[in-house]
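Subject: sequence -> structure tokens, single chain

Hey, anyone have a minute? Need the predicted structure for the following. Not urgent.
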Amino acid sequence: MVGLAPRAAELADGLRAIVPCYTGADEPTIRLLALVLARVEAASEFVVREGWFLPGGEGELQPVLRALSGWENTAARLCDRLGLTPTSRAQLGLDLVRARGVLEEDLAAGRVAWMRRAAGEDGAGA
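Reply:
Had a minute. Here:
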């Protein structure tokens, strides 16, 4: 059995460097993605070495291929959650732009209220 932990640790180091806005809160997802990617690599190497089909000529696919497909789907979902796909990065960008817009609106409203108070237009003394 191939030990996946060393390769998963290497992959996790690389992922930390590319996850947008990485924080420690991302660590469980990064470690899980790294482990899944290490499994995908190991399974892919197995299929390259042993072939797509079980020995015996019956045409039956290697059972690892079913697991490999699930691992690939899991990796894609985790990449999306970490902002590692164009779509998820775009969504992250949109969320940041929206938040900045709301902040700017709040700041502008605060400035207007302050200016009105300073000019005596707030209605408090009128």
